[in-house]
Predict the 3D structure of the following.
Amino acid sequence: QLHLVESGGGLVQPGDSLRLSCVVSGSMMNFYAIGWFRQAPGKEREEVSCISSIDGSIDVADSVKGRFTSSRDNAKSMGYLQMNNLKPEDTAVYYCHASGFRGQGTEVTVSA
């Protein structure tokens, strides 16, 4: 069983950057792809990025392509979501997930 804990959210202005972190425990992180999804009020859940456990390849949703990217540090059991040029429509609770488990989420609010 995996345990994931996100951090790094907050209130930022449009155009700002944030880096979300995800601590993974309970098993060797290098076995798992690490994904990030977001959930905004009244909207469907949206997968924004995922980084492979095999070759480190990264998938990014079209809605955030060129602004968001994932990374991972297996030695530290950490996953990251770098978010640049944030927009109000990025406002949501962001979750990391792996192997069917997810964290409690971290809230990101983008507002002037």
